[in-house]
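Problem 12. The chain below contains 496 residues. Write out its predicted structure in token notation.
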Amino acid sequence: MAKDNLDDAPPPYYSVTVPSQAPYRPYEVTGYGTGPGLTPHSHPHYIPQYPSPVVPVPVQHTTIPTSCKKRRCCERSTQCYGGSGGTLLLIGLLALAIWLGVRFGTRLVSTTIYNNFEIEHSPDEDPLLPSHDTCPNNTVKCDGVSDCQQGSDETNCVRFASDNSLELMTDEDGRFLPVCSAGWSQAASDQACQQLGFRRSFSTKSIKSPGLSISLTLTNQSSSTMQSKVKVSSSCANQEIVSLMCADCGRQQSTSKIIGGTAAKSGQWPWQGSLHFRQRHVCGAVLVAPDFLLTAAHCFTRSSSSSPSQWKVYGGMISQTNLPKAYSVKTIMLHENYNVKTNDRDIALIKLEEPVSSQGPFQPACLPFRGLLFKPGTTCWTTGFGTTDADKARVSNELIEVSVNIIGSNVCSKREVYGNAVSQNMLCAGHLEGGKDSCQGDSGGPLVCQKNGRWYLAGITSWGSGCGEKNKPGVYTNVKSVLPWVYSKMQVSVEP
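Solution.
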């Protein structure tokens, strides 16, 4: 499969070598995407494709630079062609390597060319990342009163645990506690989901919680936040607590399976989105709520992320040649702690101008709950419109699916795999023997695993070394580790 590619834009990750003594500075943002003005870092990743500027930078072609060993960098090098080729091939590779060296490995110019548009940025600029909230010293978290300028003290007060059991944090106790089902109401379910950024709740039920010693019960108090509408209780009647789902998520409209690495059938992966910038596929995306999608932070640049009107989202389709109605983007939010050099916390949240219809072909994947484990060896699936050939620049017109296995961090962190490049916010999946993997153009797309008949979003395609290479599996943003951020951003983006 591929990570991120544009039809007539520059190719994705290829192999280039930049003299180590040169005073190069990593670009702003990179990954498995193909977005405009995307600037790469020194860490491997899937990169978006755009037309390449010609800048005279000396580049060697005999070795693969460290910055390219994490995923799409070696696709067009002489090594990728098996060491064959003549002078003309080397000249062509030189031009390509120059572009990649400037765009994805170094920072010598202050202008990026994309579809004949110049996107200006200072060589000394830091990556575009949302500013942190400002809070007074006497801030009390989850007391129902917004003390911080952006209200972050009242976010992350609602979460889901095993079996989608609802948990709330209050200033009365300071811990996440389950909520008793006795006295719970439909209105309370709707409010809890609305607080997280959903439009309403989907289903509510009572589940047993044996041995429960402390919990929360719903009060009659009127409040705009759920944490202010409950009080600490010693136990629940019949030891039953609330299990809540905010969306009918993770359901396939078609369940017929195809061999990994081939075209998907309509309705198989209804949460797959295609993120377009100026009418070009740049990255994948995943619908997680009627108004929100997740994708990779490296799919955006300073200019592109601040111009949401330039972006469109397509979903519910399996072909780039038969696009449905486009959804307009209202807001693009990048993780404040996204690290362009290491790809850590490579996550972004997209808010749409209008919600996706609950009756249409574009439907959400489930966000994971606390306690949901994706054990090593679990077979999951990754999908995207990325390239199906590491040596080709064009994205796939058809949605491609690939089955991959979850790889434990202890294995993925081995020296022969990725060493210490894999953080706790990352998840590895693939096959150590190679052969099946995501690739250019797939960035921002989903890694989903099935549990109890529903598909949960385990990861967001982020980076890797080459495509389908031995001991170089795909690396994904671990959605569970960034889930508090996701919910907090969804919450503060809710319309008043």
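Discussion. The CA atoms of residues 424 and 481 lie 8 Å apart. Students who got a different answer should revisit the alignment rule from Section 12.3.
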